[in-house]
Amino acid sequence: IKSLPMDGISAKAASDQETQDFVANAVHELKTPLSIILGYLENLREPATLDDKDLTQSVLDVMDRHVVRINRIVDEMLIISKLETREKNSLDRGLFNIASCARDVIERLEIVIKKQQVDFDIQIPELEISGDQFYWSQILFNLIENSLKQNPDTAIKIRISGEVNNDESFTIRVFDNGIGIPPPDLPFIFKRFYRVKKHLPKNHIKGSGLGLSIVKQAVEAHGGTITVRSIPNVETLFVIVVPHFKGPIEEIASSA
d(Cα 74, Cα 55) in Å, to the nearest integer? Predict the structure, then answer.
């Protein structure tokens, strides 16, 4: 039997530990909303609850929010699992309009944007880039939604801009002037299940802590990089730089 070299053993042990951590965190994230739903189901079995229509509706609303949370966690875990196993061949690469992609994402978040009275501005050129449009939607959606979630009670500014660089790479910037990310948290925000600790209302449904990790993995799957800087209540800026290709898909494939 062929033995692995020591560095190979170390890498496998680290990989196994990451898998164990991922499963443990996933179970924890799913167990909380499931426990809440089970608790409210017990309440619904009480005659007093069923006789009170307002109370019943309130219980059903809470359960619905947590079912949505479970679905979101499962979807995000599937996405990040695929990205972290480096299944880059599974990316559905093609040419798509990045500005149109951004507009579609904003449309999905339009209700929240209006509700929070966000001053929103988008300046991305009508440019075709090569990549997987689904994952680019995930990148932009998670970054914009992150700004909205971090500032639920503040009428913030959000700016999205894009430009082609001299070396033909493409840069996208997502800016907001909200509460920001405390300096001690900055090195960890792209880690799976990591959430910045802050005071939230009791009825607030927590995110999975996977959104920014998905962003980083998706950017890197496209051969790009992402950086962030944040000055609380002044500026939080995510900067994505990816290779930029124009022309027929056949030409892109031959240059890869």
Answer: 29
Residue with tokens 């001690």: 184
3-state secondary structure of 56: helix
Segment 169-192 mean pLDDT:
91
Measure the CA–CA gap between 222 and 20, rounded to whole angstroms.
27
* pTM for the whole structure: 0.71
203 Cβ partners below 8 Å, 6+ apart?
62
236's tokens: 């939080």
168: left (phi over 0), alpha (psi -120 to 50) or beta: left
| Residues in CB range of 222: below 8 A, 6 or more apart | 91, 131, 132, 135, 136, 242, 243
Q: How confident is the model at residue 74 (pLDDT cuts 50, 70, 90)?
A: confident
Identify the band that residue 5 occupies on the pLDDT scale cut at 50, 70 and 90.
low
For 56, the token pair is 């019943």
Q: What is the pLDDT of residue 199?
A: 47
To 10 degrees, the CA torsion angle through 14, 195, 236, 102? 80
> Where would I find the H helices in the chain?
6-44, 47-51, 53-84, 98-108, 110-115, 133-150, 211-221, 249-255
Q: Output the CA–CA distances (angstroms, integers) from residue 56 to 38, 45, 70, 203, in the order listed.
A: 15, 10, 21, 17
Report the DSSP pairing between strands 157-164 and 169-176.
antiparallel
